[in-house]
Amino acid sequence: MRWIATLVIALVAGFAGAAAWDYTGLAPDRTREALMANPEMLPEAMQEFQRREMVARLEPLRNELEAPFPGAVLGNPDGDVTLVEFSDYACGYCRQSLAHVQQLIAANPDLKVVIREYPILSPGSADAARMALAAAQQGRFEAFHNAMFAAESLTPESIAAAAREAGVDLETARAAIDQGMFESQLQNNVFLAQNMGVSGTPAWVVGDQILSGAVGPGVLGGAIQEARDS
Predict the structure, then answer these.
(1) Number of domains in the chain
(2) How does DSSP assign 94-121, residue by residue?
(3) What is the domain range of residue 36?
(4) Residue that wins the pLDDT comparison between 180 and 49
(5) What is the CA radius of gyration of the chain?
């Protein structure tokens, strides 16, 4: 019955009219009869079509997507499997997912986690994202990342406190921020997110999958293993 899945994919992808029938080698009346007789094939075909669409969106951007801002990486920076997270420090689900990411890193020594700052939820989000990139520049990204998510609020004071706790040189960091050193990176993250259909945080990219929300370590772990096996 694989030809049924092929037909549905072809139709959804834009093979119109006679072209679709030529593609399957079936007449229109026989095609309709076969689809009506085997409706269970339609969900499978749609899933395959969606997977192909996702891969088509990802592939042109993959190298850029998986290359972190220098220092803005967790886990093994030379890992063979890459998990990309679009994150916002004002996002409660991102805070909830921090423990999941740490669990996955502990269980997967070959895992590289690329954090893409995607500050979309509050004005303070952008300030925290800039400080995170400044911390990355100083080799203090993970410490700041953890301290910022541990903070009870997102204010100029809490951002500065998280930076101090992480050992960030605030004078150097603020000078870099004032010079606009991180604006192109934040703009590029927006570009990548928009081109992959990412509209919220957290969002994850691993292998050929794009996942949204606090999906948990089980789902992420399965996607990581699938990427490793592919």
Answers:
(1) 2
(2) HHHHHHHHHHHHHH-TTEEEEEEE---S
(3) 2-54
(4) 180
(5) 22
